[in-house]
């Protein structure tokens, strides 16, 4: 094998390995999958308590890594009904909120997904401190 061909093959292998090293560290759990359902179910009790009733989620984005998941969801009443903010536990904060968008962080521990933190209707990037506070990768939160 010529030196030129060896260098070309080595460069190609290096590029392939670099692509693997820089691959996105997260994935989106498939719609309808047990994992996606379990991640949403970890968040559901906290949001239902705040919304004072049952909710279902419209997922805007969900990123998962082996031990973490981060999501942005829009809560609604089962069947697609709108949630009246004045009828929720957040009614006193409505003036300082930007809708009902929920950002949430869950972790996989002891064989199940568990809610770590969440915020409803933030007017800023309320989860920006979560990498330091919880040790979650910033890339998972879209904060690269």
Topology:
Elements: H1 3-21, H2 34-51, E1 56-64, E2 68-76, E3 102-109, E4 112-120, H3 130-134
Antiparallel strand pairs: 1-2, 2-3, 3-4
Word description of this protein:
- The chain has 144 residues and is of the alpha+beta class.
- It has helices spanning 3-21, 34-51, 130-134; strands at residues 56-64, 68-76, 102-109, 112-120.
- The protein has one domain (27-141): Nuclear Transport Factor 2, Chain: A, CATH 3.10.450.
- Strand 3 (102-109) and strand 4 (112-120) form a beta hairpin.
- The longest helix is centred in the N-terminal third of the chain and has 19 residues, at 3-21.
- The protein is globular, with a radius of gyration of 20 Å.
- It starts with a helix and ends in a 10-residue tail after the last helix.
- The relative contact order is 0.15.
- The model is unreliable at 2-22 (pLDDT under 50).
Total number of helical segments?
A: 3
Mean pLDDT: 87
**Structural class of the helix and strand makeup?**
alpha+beta
Number of strands: 4
Tell me the CATH topology. Answer: Nuclear Transport Factor 2, Chain: A
State which percent range the strand residues make up: 15-25%
**Outline type:** globular
CATH architecture: Roll
Number of domains: 1
Bin the helical content: 25-40%
What is the CA-based Rg, rounded? 20 Å
Low-confidence stretches: 2-22
Strand order of the largest sheet: 1-2-3-4
User: What's the SSE pattern?
Assistant: HHEEEEH
Largest sheet descriptor? 4 strands, antiparallel
CATH class: Alpha Beta
């Amino acid at each position: 094998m010529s030196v030129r061909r060896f260098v070309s093959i080595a460069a190609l292998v290096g590029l392939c390995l670099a692509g693997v090293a820089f691959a996105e560290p997260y994935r989106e759990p498939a719609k309808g999958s047990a994992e996606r359902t379990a991640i949403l179910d970890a968040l559901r009790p906290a949001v239902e308590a705040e919304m004072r009733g049952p909710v279902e989620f419209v997922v805007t984005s969900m990123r998962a890594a082996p031990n973490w998941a981060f999501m942005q969801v829009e809560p609604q009443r089962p069947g697609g009904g709108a949630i009246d903010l004045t009828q929720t536990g957040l009614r006193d904060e409505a003036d300082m909120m930007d809708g009902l968008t929920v950002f949430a962080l869950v972790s996989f521990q002891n064989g199940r997904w568990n809610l770590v933190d969440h915020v409803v209707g933030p007017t800023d990037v309320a989860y920006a401190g979560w990498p330091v506070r919880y040790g979650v990768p910033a890339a998972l939160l879209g904060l690269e």
